[in-house]
């Protein structure tokens, strides 16, 4: 029996129906974030790539779920081996887990913990897809997800959250995924786009979002689902830490949205809906690792810093020439780095742990730990992801052809289009009010 499982002994915690129900709801909220991301990304691309963008997120729901059940949960949260990876035969196929067995030290079943973490594993590779819009073969993307979660996500999740994982044991604070999710995905996105190159027409053709209402819908659903993502990561409601995280999630997101909009107004002269949506997501990303360690005032500071710096970072792709289609690097990588490092400044020592940041008398110790976590995950994900993309590109090819990219990846890869305008303006009702057509005269003169 794996050490992470505990039976219902007399001195062990008892199953809590309230915490179990709460965590099942949180799991459903996190699941919602993947379709929400699909809408968010889908609205940001051109019409001809909408369905492909949706499918790049949705396919993760299928692939990662099966891999997680077969071996992913065991690799991420099984018995530690060398502080690098886990493995427990009881977790393979989720076949050796009893219905009443609890996650070690908590009052929720192992099954509930497993499904909650599954939703994180699904969302993370979906985040990468936004950087690759318009140009990646769907079969190559599906293979990349399969390899990436196996080689990158499952081990990194163990480093950060698994009992015995080296970053976990070092004391790196990552409440809900600043390193394991956002830095991991953002660095992977950079690694892949350095291999596959730019879109046809990058920096020449307009590539504006085709549906800002879809973007706003996706952002709103992400904000809603993120409460489960963040507050649920404490795995219960017994001590108020999850409640603090819930409040900090709202506060930081609001501050980041306002900061992004203020930057836009000063820099470009307008408050845009895309800026509001992007700013909100930047705040959600930044508070994810830090919200369980800071006060609401600290959350405002973290959100404002993230909103401002992420807004500035999205323009770096034009300066350095990498084609991050939907700003995954500017928002998720930069936001994840900021949120992770700012723990070392704003941690109060009075919420999830007694670790204090520099501004609360803790010195530079926690900041140093956070920096190690950031650099380790960023470097590993960047290098491993680039290697995986290169292997796929050299074997089956990662990109569609230039002609297919120009004509539209939706039709080429999915034999569909997002919108059917064939019936627009037609129909009997419109014809009935039209002026009568002139009589047809074949080879005859019509008198004036």
UniProtKB/TrEMBL annotation:
Say yes or no: keyword Nuclease present. no
CC terms in the record's Gene Ontology section: plasma membrane
Q: tRNA processing: is it a keyword of this entry?
A: no
Query: Pfam families, from UniProt?
Result: Ammonium_transp
Q: Which UniProt keywords apply?
A: Ammonia transport, Cell membrane, Membrane, Transmembrane, Transmembrane helix, Transport
NCBIfam families named among the record's database cross-references = amt
- Stated name of the protein: Ammonium transporter
From which lineage does this chain's organism come?
A: Bacteria, Bacillati, Actinomycetota, Actinomycetes, Kitasatosporales
